[in-house]
Amino acid sequence: MIEPKPAIQPEQSGNKPKKRRFGGTEAQIRSALKFYKVMAYLTGAMLLLLCAELIARYAFGVSLYAGGTDAVTGQPFGFGFAESEPKGVLGGFNISTSVLIVHGWMYVVYLVSNFRLWSLMRWPFSKMVLLALGGVIPLLSFFVEKKFHAEVEAELAANPQASKRY
Question: Considering the entire predicted model, what is its pTM?
Fold first, then answer.
């Protein structure tokens, strides 16, 4: 007598590669990738400006000002570097401080772009940490962006059915 077999055979472990699934459609992933790319370059550029500003402030004791009055001569001050302590310009716009503030807020938006890409790709948390470090280590955002951009493109090409959610 022939033994009946179940309709669905149990899967043998180790023979099949794990099926890749994304957290969104290909269009959503590409949109997140483009947003991440823009924010990586903007945040990286602002970080380089921030480093230049910190070197100017702490190595040379100057800050970048626009407008105001020269504290020593009383003459109008146009645009340029002036003493940080004591203030060399009174009533002017401190561009150096603005760079600090803009980079801080831009880094927050950069983290949002990191989280969006990371969650759609369903990567491990270690990749999120590496993405986040790109905004605080000078020049790293440019290298990380290039690496992860290529990785996303490769994963999308290798798994065309993984993002079909709808």
Answer: 0.80
